[in-house]
Every structure is written in structure tokens, then in C-alpha cells.
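Hi everyone, sorry if this is the wrong subforum. Our group has a chain we'd like a structural model of before ordering constructs, and none of us has done structure prediction before. Sequence below.
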Amino acid sequence: MRAITIEYRVPYADTDQMGVVYYGNYLTLFERARNELMRAVGYTYRECEADGIALPVVHAEVDYKRPAKYDDLLEVKAWVRAQKGVRLEIACEVRRKGEAELLVSGFTRHVFVALADFHPCPPPERLLAAMADD
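Answer:
Right subforum, don't worry. Here is the predicted structure as C-alpha cells:
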């Protein structure tokens, strides 16, 4: 599956008393990128839910290397790191636009579940096919 990159300008509301992006906000950035990744492969969360499937996060890891600050223009890159059975891992990297230095990296692990009962279910064939195309 291809990688996608989104841009995000850090608003003042995302920063803490030290003037850097609050650590928990990186998971929100990961989610923004994950949504656009799903859109890029042609299978949005809305379509997933219409098919009766959800993708809850069951694990998340974030490695903080350097702080981002108010008004930084960030690039958030996302890609599928692994897919096995009902599990899907989406990796992310955050950098300032145009800079090579890695600020934050990490991933979220998801499990495909049926909305009807929240039990694990097989991934949609449409998504597997889209992932195989790239």
C-alpha cells in the first residue's frame, strides 16, 4: 500500500505550557493521516462502517524524538506497516515540512470487528484488494 503524507499547521491550542505540541495530540495527528490513507486507497471509514465493520485502536506506540512547536507546518506520513488476520498496523512519522529530521514516529494497531457485536471479523476484501494494488 502506498504511503500518504498530509500537512498540518500546529495551532496554539495544540501546545502545552512549554510551547510544544502536547504529547497526546500526536495520536490525533496519526488519526488524521490514517483517515486520509483509507481515503487514498478508496475505502473510507464511512464505507467500512456501512459494511458493518469498525477498526478500533487496540494498541498505540509513540516515540518522541524532537518537539514540534506552535505554527510549525508538519508533514505526517502514514502507511500500512503490517496486516495479518484481523489485525492492521498503521505506522506514522512526523517531520517539519521540508526537513529530514524525524520529530515523532509510531504506530497504531487495529482489529477489524463487526459493529453488531464487536467481535473480531475478517477484513473486508475490498480493503485487502486495495492494499495489494500498490
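For your construct planning: The chain has one domain: 4-133. Residues 25-40 form the longest helix (16 residues).
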